[in-house]
Design a protein that fits this description.
Elements lengths: L3 H13 L26 H12 L4 E9 L2 E10 L4 E7 L3 E7 L2 E6 L8 E5 L8 H6 L11 E8 L2 E6 L1 H7 L6 H11 L6 E7 L5 E9 L5 E9 L15 E3 L9
Parallel strand pairs: 6-12
Antiparallel strand pairs: 1-2, 1-11, 2-3, 3-4, 4-5, 5-6, 7-8, 8-9, 9-10, 10-11
Helix pairs in contact: 4-5
Length: about 260
């Protein structure tokens, strides 16, 4: 079980760390409302508001992160407001995670339990738990919180630079998010200049984001994300009781 946690946390972070709750100052647009055209907004603000708009309701997110010959891929459907998430992927082994309120369900060959699914009560996790950080949909800020410059290059596409240190300053101190970004900044060759590319749709929602962090020892860390199905209802089912066991009190010491 212990060896699953880092991989799962990284996988979840790819879908979440990049931008929930950026507090860009602009109101998030619902899927049914007409948002101002992205080109009418200053580029840096447009990118920040774009993530807010994307996460204003249910959506689908596909993502990958690569470092050298290692890669993590995942696809998830989520509703941040309802705190529901269904994620499948490889990190590098197959994993599956479901979130329904404060109940998280994990499935992986690395789990030590007798049943396929493990149920975790998020309210029992330690304050600095990596899993708490990954599942805390409201407190995530991530790279988008550190965007310092952007320019529109046509067709809804933007290029720019993000500052990991500023992202850490903007992040919530809860759930270990700030510490996670600070750790990433220490690994980067130039944490103040992380190049990114973003695409916004006609409603100002972020539909694609990619960025590369050049690290001191791990080579380039390349992240790519795509968002779609905005406003499409997300239903997450509880795994069958016969296939689920609750995490033991002892296990919470390592989660």
């Amino acid at each position: 079980m212990r060896r699953l946690i880092p991989a799962l946390s990284i996988a979840l972070a790819v879908t979440l760390v990049s931008g929930c709750g950026t507090n860009s100052g602009g109101p998030a647009a619902s899927s049914s409302s007409a948002a101002p055209a992205a080109s009418k907004v200053e580029p840096t603000a447009a990118v920040k508001q774009g993530m807010d708009r994307s996460l204003a309701g249910p959506l689908t997110m596909d993502a990958s992160v690569k470092a050298g010959n290692q890669s993590i891929t995942m696809s998830g459907k989520m509703d941040p407001a309802a705190r529901t998430l269904h994620l499948t992927g490889k990190a590098p082994e197959p994993i599956e995670a479901r979130l329904i309120g404060d109940a998280a369900y994990l499935k992986s060959d690395s789990l030590d339990g007798e049943k396929p699914w493990m149920k975790i009560d998020l309210t029992k996790l330690r304050p600095n738990s990596s899993l708490r950080q990954s599942f805390d949909l409201k407190s995530q800020t991530g790279l988008i919180g550190g965007v310092v410059s952007a320019q529109e290059v046509g067709g809804g596409r933007y290029t720019g630079v993000a500052d990991l240190e500023k992202a850490a300053e903007a992040a919530s101190s809860e759930a270990g998010m700030r510490e996670g970004l600070e750790s990433t900044a220490k690994l980067a060759k130039d944490p103040k200049a992380v190049p990114f590319e973003a695409t916004l749709d006609a409603d100002g929602r972020l539909t694609a984001l990619s960025y590369t962090i050049a690290t001191k020892k791990l080579g380039d860390l390349v992240t790519e994300m795509r968002m779609s199905d905005f406003g499409k209802p997300v239903t997450v089912d509880v795994p069958p009781a016969s296939e689920t066991e609750a995490a033991s009190e002892e296990m919470y010491k390592f989660l």
